[in-house]
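Preliminary data (for renewal application), pyridoxal-5'-phosphate complex.
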Amino acid sequence: MKPIDLRSDTVTRPSPGMLAATMAADVGDDVWGDDPTVNRLQAVAAEITRKEAALFFPSGTQGNLAALMAHCERGDEYLVGQMAHAYRWEGGGTAVLGSLQPQPLEQDADGTIALERIAAAVKPHGPGLGTHLDVTREDVDRFVAAVQTYFAEVAR
Ligand SMILES: Cc1ncc(COP(=O)(O)O)c(C=O)c1O
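Predicted structure:
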């Protein structure tokens, strides 16, 4: 199977068919929810990820920031791989814009963080100690059942 790298428009180029589809797409105002193409994309994304709803973001950096801000409150800490894009390559956006504190952890060769390492990094909760935490792992090119199983274990 030939993998398709969907991480960024820096690693993909639109084919003539994709460009033609873009030019011919039905468009509208996304704020009013009347862009039929975006609405369809979000509906398909929600369906294939088995979520209630999905939101389209035009860049990975924006999507990562929005996802972390949606899951955390100001002052929260999130556990993140040392090599994760959101931690390493996004200009500290979660701290600058989201008031979130990253707790970077060493990753294994497959990109996961060992469950014991996650458990050891969880700090006590309470006033002055930060509140809850979120574990992030973004890896669309390897978004397979194994990752979902891993996250199910992390969530326990
Ligand atoms: C894993 C990963 N996440 C996020 C991004 C950022 O995507 P964008 O350039 O669309 O902001 C990249 C870009 O290379 C990436 O490799």
